[in-house]
């Protein structure tokens, strides 16, 4: 079967995979994680600000937050990366030098913050408004009630969605290569692509894909696990009572009351 041999030689050349493995592990994986984690941290900070602005009572805060969210959620990720990476390249060179690394992180952060802001906003608004009113009744200010009571509960509810967003950032980090990263700054996709071009074989790209799967698949199962825990709770529900048990409970008076009536 020549076609099967050709497929194996094209996608499963283990020699080519092994040759690119050290670069994928020592350069590509490290840079992918640095880009993704940095973009996520900045995105969480900006996203919380956008979320607070989005639920503000002031129209001057809500409208800019909505425009910001619509713009960065509506544009393709590659377009945002190119606009930021090329539009601010001269300014970045004066601050960070020739490396486009910071601009790639900035572009991913802006994209992530728009999605994370919506995630936070939905989580905060899912908290019962009665809790905010109870805090105000106890004398807490609006800011303190939001910071100490409402926001922590909202964030806890959206943790699975935040992990999903991190997975999306890990995959979008492969688009940063359009900015022309330095050799020491190549992420997984760029390392695999360069090796594939040199060898004329797609096996290095397959190996890069396996690295992505090693990151994203466990996180996906972790999200499903926590989502199940949050939805069902840690404690198992008590078995339902039969109709006979309910009738007996209604007919039998409490022990304390019976004792008091006899005395």
Automatic annotation (TrEMBL):
InterPro entries in UniProt: AA_ABC_transptr_permease_3TM, ArtM/GltK/GlnP/TcyL/YhdX-like, MetI-like, MetI-like_sf
Pfam families, sorted: BPD_transp_1
Chain segments carrying region Disordered: 234-263
Family the UniProt entry places it in: Belongs to the binding-protein-dependent transport system permease family. HisMQ subfamily.
CDD domains membership: TM_PBP2
Membrane topology: Multi-pass membrane protein
NCBIfam families from the UniProt entry: HEQRo_perm_3TM (TIGR01726)
Protein name: Amino acid ABC transporter permease
Ranges of biased composition (kind: Polar residues): 250-263
Alphabetic keyword roster: Amino-acid transport, Cell membrane, Membrane, Transmembrane, Transmembrane helix, Transport
Intracellular or extracellular location(s): Cell membrane
UniProt xrefs under PROSITE patterns: ABC_TM1
Taxonomic path: Bacteria, Bacillati, Actinomycetota, Actinomycetes, Micrococcales
Predominant location: membrane
UniProt domain ABC transmembrane type-1: residue ranges: 29-223
Transmembrane feature ranges: 20-50, 71-89, 101-120, 166-184, 204-226
């Amino acid at each position: 079967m020549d076609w099967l041999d050709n497929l194996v030689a094209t996608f499963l050349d283990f020699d080519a995979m092994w040759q690119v493995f050290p670069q994928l592990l020592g350069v590509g994986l490290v840079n992918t994680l640095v880009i993704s984690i940095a973009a996520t941290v900045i995105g969480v900070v900006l996203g919380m600000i956008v979320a607070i602005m989005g639920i503000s009572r002031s129209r001057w805060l809500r409208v800019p937050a909505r425009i910001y969210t619509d713009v960065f959620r509506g544009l393709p990720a590659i377009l945002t990366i190119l606009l930021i990476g090329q539009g601010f390249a001269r300014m970045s060179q004066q601050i960070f030098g020739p490396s486009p690394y910071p601009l790639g992180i900035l572009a991913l952060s802006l994209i992530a913050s728009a999605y994370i802001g919506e995630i936070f906003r939905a989580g905060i608004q899912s908290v019962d408004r009665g809790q905010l009113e109870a805090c105000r009744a106890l004398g807490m200010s609006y800011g303190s009630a939001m910071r100490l009571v409402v926001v922590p509960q909202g964030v806890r509810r959206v943790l699975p969605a935040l992990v999903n967003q991190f997975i999306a950032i890990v995959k979008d980090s492969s688009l940063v290569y359009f900015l022309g990263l330095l050799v020491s700054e190549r992420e997984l996709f760029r390392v695999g692509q360069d090796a594939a071009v040199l060898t004329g074989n797609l096996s290095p790209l397959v190996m890069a894909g396996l690295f992505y799967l090693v990151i994203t698949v466990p996180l996906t199962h972790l999200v499903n696990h926590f989502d199940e825990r949050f939805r069902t709770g840690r404690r198992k529900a008590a078995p339902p009572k039969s109709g006979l048990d309910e009738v007996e409970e209604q007919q039998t008076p409490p022990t304390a009351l019976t004792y008091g009536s006899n005395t």
